[in-house]
Amino acid sequence: MADAIRTGFWLRLWRHKFGHWSMAILVLLVLLAIAAPVIAPHNPVDTDLSAVSQPPSILHMLGTDELGRDIFSRLLYGARVSLTVGFGAVLLSTVVGVLLGFISGYFGGIIDNVLMRFVDGLLSLPTIVLVLALQALGDQNIWNVVLVIAFANWMQTARLVRTEFLSIKQKPFVKAAVTTGTKDSNIMLRYILPNCMPSVIVLATINVGHAIITEAALSFLGLGIPPHLPSWGNMLIGGQRSILLGNWWITLFPGLMIISTVLAVNFVGDAVRDALDPLSMYKKSS
Amino acid sequence: MALLQLDHVKKYYRLHRSWLAGHKIVKAVDDISFTVEQGESFGIVGESGCGKSTLARLIAMIDMPTAGSILVEGNDIALLSAENRRQLRRNSQFVFQEAYAALNPRFSVGETLLEPIRNFALQQSINSDCRIEQVINFVGLPSKVLTKYPAELSGGERQRVCIARALILQPRFILFDEATSGLDSTLQSQILSLLNELRRNLNLTYIFITHNLQILSRVTDRVAVMYLGKFVEIIASDRLDSSRHPYTQELFAAIPASHPLQRKDTVLSDRPINQKEIPLSGCSYYPRCRLAIPKCKTQIPELESAGHGGLIACFNID
Questions:
Q1: Less Cβ around it within 10 Å: N or C end of chain B?
Q2: pLDDT interval class at B264 (50, 70, 90)
Q3: pLDDT score recorded for residue A57
Q4: Using the beta-carbon criterion (under 8 Å), do A173 and B103 form an inter-chain contact?
C-alpha cells in the first residue's frame, strides 16, 4: 500500500502542469554545468582584447564581455557556481532550519527561548552585513560562500517550522495518535514533520533565488568567488556599466539564466508540494 | 476492581485576562467522582460548555487533572511513566468529536487503521490486513475506502473511520465523545446496535458523552447529568422518566414530543440561559432553577442517594 502511495506521488509530480517542464529545465542546466568543459567553445577566463564587447556572432554565440571573454562559455562554467551556491546553501539552511525549529518546538521552555532570541538577533541584522562579516573571515572559495549564505538564511525556516510544529501539535489528529499509543518519536516524524513540509518547500524555493542573488552581491563586492571566475551573479553585475553603452547581451543572458532557474525551482516546488498533498490530488483527479 | 475510577477530579483553566485584571479561573470540571465497572455502559449528558469534553480529555489521558485522581484498571494515571501510560492505551480507546480533524490528512484510511497495530507491534500476532478489513466492514464501509484519504470521504464516512480506529485493537474500554453525531439516523441506529452487540459478546465497557438524549437509553446502563462542571444527577437509563433533579427534568422536557397528544406540560425554565451567571456560592444551577430555595444560594449540594436508586445533588427534591 505504501508503494502505491509512493508511485502515486511521482505520478502526481509528473502530471503537474509546469512541473515536468521545469524539472527538465533544471536537469538540463545541471547537465550543462557538468559537461561545461566539453561543450564550452572557449576558455571562460581567457581574455581577448581584439574581440571586446562583441554582439552575438558565429564565433561567439552569445557575444563577448568587455574583456573579450566568451559569454556562452562563461555561462556554462557560471552554472557550476550559481547552481552549487543556490541549491547547496538552500539545502543546508533548510536542513538546519527544520532541525532547529523542531528542537525549539519540541522542547519549548528555555531551549526554545534561547534559540528564538538568537534567531531574533540574527534576523535583526541586514543579510548583506551578516554575509559580508562572515565571508571576510574565510577564504574566497565556493564552499565558504555556500556556508555563509546558508548561515544567513536558516532563521526564517526555523521560525516557520517552530510555529507549524506548535500548531500541528495541538491538532486533534495528533491527540488521536497519542491515544492510539503512538510513540513520541513516531508522532514527530510521521505526523508533524510531513505536515510542516508544504510551507518549508515553498520557503525553500523562494530562498534558491535569494541565494543566487546574494552570491552575486558578494562577488560584486569582491568577497565571493575570485572575480575572474564566472558566476551568473557576477556576470550580471559586471555587465552593468555596459548596458549604458548598448551592450545588452552582457547582462541579458546571465539574467535569463537566473530567472529561468528561479522560475523552474518555484514550479518544481509547487509541484512537489501539491504532489505531497493528498487533498490537492483529489481535487485534480475529480 | 473498577475499570475506571474518578475521585474528586477537578480541571481548572486560568484565563489570563489582562495585566491588571489578573487571572480568571474557569472550572471546567469541578469535583467529579464516579466509577465505571467492567462491562458497564455509562452516559454523560449536558448542554454545550458544561465540561463534558474536558472530562473526556482527562479520561483519555490527554490532559492531567488539576486535582483529584483518575484510576484506570487500578493504576493512578498521574503516577505512571509515559511508557506505562502508553501501554495502558492498548485497552482503552477514544473516539473524538470532529472526525475530520482527528485523521492525519496524509494517511490513507488503511494506514490510519494500521497505526494502532504498529504502535503495539502486533503485526506478527494478528493478521493486520484481515483485521483492518473486518473492522472497516463492521462500521459499514466497503473495503475500497482503505486506499482513500480523509479528504475524499464524507463526514459520516470519516466518523466511521474514527470508530473503526477505536475498535481495531479490540480494547476493553471505549469512550465515545459525540461519536455518532454526524451520522444519519438509520446509520446511527445500525452502529449503536452493533456496538451493543459487541459489548455483550466481549464484555466491553463504554462511556458515551453526548447531548443526544435519545441514544442514551439505547446504549447506556447509567446516565450522569452534568451542569457547569458538576454532576447533578446519576440515574439508571431505564428510569430516566423518574428523574427528579430540576435540571434533568428541564433537559428531558426540551425533547420535542413525537406526537402532539404526548406533549407534556413544559417545565422549561423561563429564565434566560446565561453562562456568565455562574454564582459565586451555592448550587451552580440555582439562578435557573424553578425549585430554588434560600439554602441553594449559600450551600453546595452533594450527590446523595435518592429514592429512584440513583444519586442526586439537590436540596429541594421532595
A1: C
A2: low
A3: 81
A4: yes
CA terminus-to-terminus distance, chain B: 35
- Model pLDDT for residues B35-83, shown as the tens digit of each residue: 999 999 999 998 887 888 889 989 988 888 999 999 988 889 888 888 8
Surface-to-core class of residue A188, CB atoms within 10 Å of its CB (0-12 exposed, 13-18 middle, 19+ buried): middle
Q: Phi and psi of A78, rounded to 5°? A: -65, -30
Q: Which residues of A touch B90 (CB under 8 A)?
A: 181
Give the tens place of pLDDT for each residue, A242-282.
Answer: 888 888 888 888 889 988 998 898 888 888 888 777 665 55
A&B contacts, CB < 8 Å? 79
Name the residue in chain A with its Cα closest to that of B102.
Answer: A173
Contacts 24+ apart (CB under 8 A), A45-51: A45/A69, A45/A228, A45/A229, A45/A230, A46/A70
Interface check for A244 against chain B (CB to CB < 8 A): the answer is no
pLDDT at residue A2 tops 50: no
Give me the residue label for grid cell 448550587: B283
Element housing B35 (H / E): strand B22-36
**The three three-digit cell numbers of residue A28, written as one number:** 538540463
SS3 per-residue string spanning A92-111: HHHHHHHHHHHHHHHHCHHH
What confidence tens digit (pLDDT) does each residue in B128-146 have?
Answer: 888 899 899 888 899 999 9
Q: Which residue has the cell 513516531?
A: A186
Q: Is A4 in contact with B162 (Cβ distance < 8 A)?
A: no
Nearest CA in chain B to A171: B101
- For residue A175, give the nearest of B62, B108, B147 by CB distance: B62
Neighbours of A57 (CB within 10 A): 11
**How far apart (Å, rounded) are the C-alpha atoms in residues B268 and B253?**
7
Number of neighbours of residue B73 by Cβ within 10 angstroms: 15
Specify the CATH number of the domain A2-285: 1.10.3720.10
* pTM attached to this predicted model: 0.79
